[in-house]
Write a structure and sequence with these properties.
mainly alpha; about 0% strand; flat; disordered N terminus
Amino acid sequence: MTDTTHSPHGARSAQTDGSARPVPFRGGGFRPATNRWAGPLVFALLIAFVEVGLRAGWISNLTLPLPSDVLATFVQLYETGLLWRHLVPSLTRFMVGGTLGALAGIGVGTLIGLFGLARAGLVPMVAALFPVPKIALLPLFVIWFGIGEGSKYALIALGTFTPMVVATYGAVDNVDRTLIRMGQSFGLSWGSIVRKIVLPGAMPGILSGLRIGLAIAIILLVAAEMLGAQYGIGAYILEAGSLYDLERLFAGVAILSVLGVATSAAVAWVERRVLRWRS
């Protein structure tokens, strides 16, 4: 018997008879595959299940409203102009407070990650402030800034600030030190290393913290608007809840859900633009 496994003829025959399959390219790492229809399909199936369950009597009408009635309430909000009267103030508070908190959190977190003195002085303060329920500070902010917009901006900014600080200095800490030493060996200045190595390397963690911070900002937005706001999604939900108007209540909740999905999509868009180097 002749051994042809190591001969060129044997290798060619193995390739031609289909026994040797090509190895797929794995340069993409663990990048997850996306499906744009999976999310909307899950939402549609859940809404259809609730609609059928309520009409068939599987679910009590005292616990959930018909999704079709919620949609009719939303259309009525749009036609009467109340949607924009409540939505515009909420978006303004969310954008102003969230932006202030995110920028301040990124700045302080970067200082903590880069400078030992800032870390020694600021980490204990952040650790003491982070677990405090921010909604408990709303009466204090009302005393400081009044019942108007200032207290709402301050509450939302503080709620966004603390998770952004923790995420940012953790992301700066996790930058590969080998890359930093490599930059030093090539004679890069401290500013160039921070700008070209540290900040790009920390950006995935910063953006992950931004998702969490903005989600907390939406929660605090509703809480702030439930106290001393005439217009806003939180005020609308509070009024509907006091009247036990489930259709209006869930219409307000649906608006908040859409705001959360839109915020997550915006952060994902920034990730695709900023983190192209990971693909």
